[in-house]
Amino acid sequence: MTRLNRALTPAELERRARALGEWFHNIDLGGVHTAPNHFLGDYPSNKWRRFAGAIPRDLHGLSVLDIGCNGGFYSIEMKRRGADRVVAIDYDEAYLRQARFAAAACGTEIEFRKLSVYDVARLGERFDIVLFMGVFYHLRHPLLALDLIHEHVARDFFVFQSMHRGSDGVAALAEDYPFGETDIFNRPDYPKLHFVEHRYSQDGTNWWIPNRACVEALLRSAGFDILEHPEEEVYFCRWRAAEEGLQPAYPARGKAGRR
Description:
Elements lengths: L9 H10 L25 H7 L11 E5 L5 H8 L4 E6 L2 H13 L5 E4 L12 E7 L8 H11 L1 E8 L31 E3 L12 E3 L1 H11 L1 E8 L2 E6 L20
Parallel strand pairs: 1-2, 1-4, 2-3, 4-5
Antiparallel strand pairs: 5-9, 6-7, 8-9
């Protein structure tokens, strides 16, 4: 962890925060905000307030993995709740620089690693709580990512968030349908994953955007039981053993055992 001079003035904190580029996480560094003009308002604090109650307030004795940590907002919140250990990963070095700075400014000890979600097996361990916030729709291979998280790093609780588009309904589906049944696919509440060939919201990294039914089906398929849906885009889940034959496409050798 990089330690900041605790005597830094607000003006110096702001200067150093601005030097790290445009922030997506608006983090309060003791009165200095990293993204005060965010198009989503005080984001992600405004979202966090709507689902914070689903996560235990006392995380002492627990380990947390934050996948796609961005500027580090959620990692910092986990340390503030007393988590013994927080590991935060992101593939974008610019975000990691911001997150290291924010964590140090807030006086929190967080381990940062440059890894993508597809690399999680390299961590070689499992965590009590895994956060996967705002990453899913940026992935070209989203179900593989969920499978790898389940196979290699999740141990108990899994907190998932994704942008939704389309119907908010969830169809009551049968276990199977005959080949001639086609109308079911036209229902807006059928699980659908919308593919973005070019851009959405001027962002070329938005690839797949699910409806709510799709999110819930994907989580179940990957081996996560949904315990709570505390916010429209957030799901609080628990790990369970995957069904036979539903291992990731690229399992790593020497995967960490469940402890």
